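ARCHIVE CARD
SHELF: 3
SLOT: left
DATA:
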Amino acid sequence: MQKIDLIKWPEQTLACILKEYPLGEIPHYLDTTDLIPENFEMFFQQLLDAINELKIDTRLSYPTYLIRKDFKSDAIPVLNSVDGLPSFFMKRARTLKGAELSLLGKIKILFLKANDRDLKEKVKAIGNIKSHHKNLYSVCKKTLFYDKLYQNLKKSGK
């Protein structure tokens, strides 16, 4: 998990700051607990503009978290404190062996191929698939209910 330093903001645009980080390759977080509300509103709007400009999806492949108390957003995952960050991302880095480096190279190539596609289309397709699965689940549940009802009626009719 890597913290995105906001020391250069607002002198430098958020798009320029975010370009320096490998977003999507490893998880990141932006700690905005020190920003006053007026500055935060401007910051958040610039953040949304930078995300759109750089075509970043803050949820795929690795998330980018925003740390801000009492704030919610659909565009980026928001947590109340740094303590709320997922613990499985908090691992110490170690040197890799030869086979691990080879696998990492293959994974990076696949990652770049996957990121060549438009992420908004991916999210929309996932949403469509999710809604189809929900409908299928609902229909199967109703069918199972009617089947059990029919079996019970059939038993009681004998």
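SLOT: right
DATA:
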Amino acid sequence: MFGQSPEVTTSIQGFLKSVTVPVIEALGDDDIDQVGTGTLFRVAGRLFLVTARHIFDDVRPENLCVPRSPDGDRNPHTLGPITVTKPTDSSIDIAIVEIHSPEAIARIETGWRILSLNMMRPASREALFALSGYPSELGKRPHAALVRSTLFIVETDRLDEIPASADKPVNPDLDLFFAYGRDGLKSNGRTMGAPHLRGASGASIWEFSQSAEQLWTPDGTLKIVGVQSSMDRNYDYFRAKSCLYLLEAFRQIDNEIASEVDKVRKQLKI
């Protein structure tokens, strides 16, 4: 992966598995469905789940669940009290879910890796990128109360031009477009063809970058550049929203979080 050795590829896959969260909806009568993908952040000691705004078109916030760990959960619990922040501009397909329940926070902290805001960077023009998410068509449902999501990782390139078929409006500062339709990897390392990305909405887009002087670690070389929002009906590309708009969405939450965002932006000079 990214032209790296098998050992480094395994390390990258393990890291992405630990930070890529399937977002589940409780449907009632012990039935559940996997509806999106998210990434967890801790900001000012508070816990947030970032995902796609449009999943809330069909999902009631109080029905959201997160599995106990990347290995699944035979009895996923709803998140309890949450606050959902959405940008005022509906074209910014990002939602930030703050999790308030101490019980839910404790469950999540034991099984998932939680990131800080300094894991974000603006996307480079030319670099190596990857999407890591949970397409719904790869999920297995042994019975109604158990969805086993399958992590899918695909390397990609940023498109030089905005595709003519892209749904309008398109904002060059907000919208990122990446090539699709190529083989990717399951979390077990096996290659598979490109699935439909329903269920991967809200997934982080990662940029791989390493300098010759840099000590290699997954969290040192992988940075979040955007949040996946949609894909081309012909599987030619997928679309994401820039992490700069995600940082601005965090700033909307309250003054405490805005202060943390400002510190990160100053540190990263963005």
